[in-house]
TrEMBL record:
Taxonomic source organism: Caballeronia fortuita
Pfam families per UniProt: Epimerase
Protein name, UniProt field: Epimerase/dehydratase WbiG
GO cellular component: cytoplasm
Organism phylogeny: Bacteria, Pseudomonadati, Pseudomonadota, Betaproteobacteria, Burkholderiales
A GO MF label: aldehyde dehydrogenase (NAD+) activity
NAD-dependent epimerase/dehydratase domain: residues covered: 8-224
Chain segments annotated as transmembrane: none
Domain of life, per lineage: Bacteria
Amino acid sequence: MSETGRRIAITGANGFVGRAVSRALIVRGIGATGLVRRGAQCEAGVDTRFIDGLESIAPDAFAGCSAAIHLAARVHVMADAAARSQAVLEAYRAINVDGTLAAAEAARRAGVTRFVLMSSIKALGESDPGRPFTEDDARHPPDAYGVSKAEAEVKLLEFGSRTGLEIAIVRPPLVYGPGVRANFLAMMRAIARGIPLPLGAIDARRSLVSVDNLASATIECALNPGAVGRVFHVTDGDDPSVAALARKLGEHLGKPARLVPVPAGLLRGVARLAGKSARIDRLTGSLRVDSRRIRETLGWHAPLSLDEGLAATAAWFRSTQAR
């Protein structure tokens, strides 16, 4: 089937990654069907279909689609203690495990042949083992979200083996790009306002992926026969230090980052007292990800370099400040 004759369903099509996937499909002439909750808005050109939730999703939602990209998930990370409670874990499982399997079953019954799960590097861990994570590393998720993603991976691959539904899994690290929120946006705001950041002595290296690179790779996993039954890490191919990332953002924002060289150990100590250990650990620990498999197996290459991705993100941020 040619690309112009294809149609791919996207759960969570109204989200940050979902919108990027939708745009990329439309540019390639591939039909995009967005499965979202009532009241949500998708990108122009998306065939929007409303669902009440993953647990009750019907096969009709996937009608006419040959593949599905499953982005809908519970993603909010709560406070350190709450993120490890049993009640919170079950809440994550209900959406990220049970909901994923329900969506896969509905898609299979509708005639979908390929189901791509957007997982997370958190299925493996919060910091790397002294080298970049590979897809074959053991899963040691750090919190309820990571546990739910790890369990979803295992159960979905088992589901595919049992039913014949083709499964592919994508594991991104930190995703950024125009429209980014959370800590990445907070860093840009601080740099733009000239607020000193205690990151000058942080040499921890972190892999990143621009949302447009992630969209490109995810679509490749939905189309390429070599993706079936495989897990793929996706990155920009560059692992900057936290300090270097801040400096590069400052260059693109036209506002040099003011970095104060505070020792990582001191930062972690203050964070423990403030109950912010998880947030500081993410800044002071390395999380490098090996993404050679998708390049070597599928022949995929990131359309944007890290610098190009950061430039686009900074341009978007500047445009929001001018409004």
